[in-house]
Amino acid sequence: MSKNTCSGIRLANLDDAPVILSIFQHCDPFAIKGRWQQHINLIDIMDWIESITDTHPMLVLEEQGKVIAWCSLEPFYGLPAFDAASEISLYVHPEEQGKGVGTQLIQYLETQRTELGFTHLVAYIYASNIESQSFFKRQGFEQWGLLPNIAQSEQVKEDVLILGREF
Q: Which DSSP letter does residue 16 get?
């Protein structure tokens, strides 16, 4: 991936782990109501950052030196036939939502897609997360599937939608 980034977008590093965790915990409604964010900690985020590759990066978007959003690409499935597909995760700090920050990250990925090697992006979105569904649909994603009650924690169950986009 190109080292020259636009709009304050760069590769995440270990120093970003605390803010990445904080943004995740503030933005994931199922994690909040299901309390499973208690099981995601700083070490998990650091391990995640250390596992990035040229084709599966974790990016952060900074504004005035402050990380306000992050996204990551991960392998979609473990077989070579699926290497051109990546799972995308994207989180924007609540105070920055609705300002085009997520769109900047998607557009950046789009400009880097040949270098990153993907033709398809797949997002898993909780059914109750209408804002996230709307965001991804505005970015050209369509619903490709539904996983009923697959996310579970204590007494909470949640459907997960599979949204995808072919480039």
A: G
Q: Is the pLDDT of residue 87 over 50?
A: yes
Burial class of 47 by CB neighbour count within 10 A (0 to 12, 13 to 18, 19+): exposed
CA distance 93 to 67: 9
Write the DSSP assignment of 73-141 as a string of letters. Answer: EEESSSSGGGTTEEEEEEEE-GGGTTTTHHHHHHHHHHHTHHHHT-SEEEEEEETT-HHHHHHHHHTT-
Cβ(167)–Cβ(113) under 8 Å?
yes
Tell me how long the chain is.
167
Consecutive H or E run containing 166 = strand 156-166
State pLDDT tens for residues 35-63.
545 578 899 999 999 999 999 999 999 99
